[in-house]
Amino acid sequence: MMNTQFEFTSSQLSAYMDKIRKESQCLIDELIVKYSP
Q1: 0.85 surpassed by pTM
Q2: DSSP code for 36
Q3: N or C: more exposed end of the chain, with fewer CB within 10 A?
Q4: What is the C-alpha separation between 27 and 30, in angstroms, rounded?
């Protein structure tokens, strides 16, 4: 039971981190465009 729960949580965490990474990349790209000479 615990093991399955942990795997489920780990999977969710992985998806969440992936989402954050994509959003961060978009934000960084915007900043580069905004502040590049």
Answers
A1: no
A2: -
A3: C
A4: 5
Contacts of residue 19, Cβ cutoff 8 Å, sequence gap at least 6: none
Type of residue at 10: S
Over residues 8-27, the pLDDT tens digits come to: 688 888 999 999 999 999 99
Residue in the structure block whose two tokens are 């580069």? 32
Q: What is the pLDDT of residues 27-37, one digit of tens each?
A: 999 999 999 87
Distance CA 21, CA 23 (A): 6
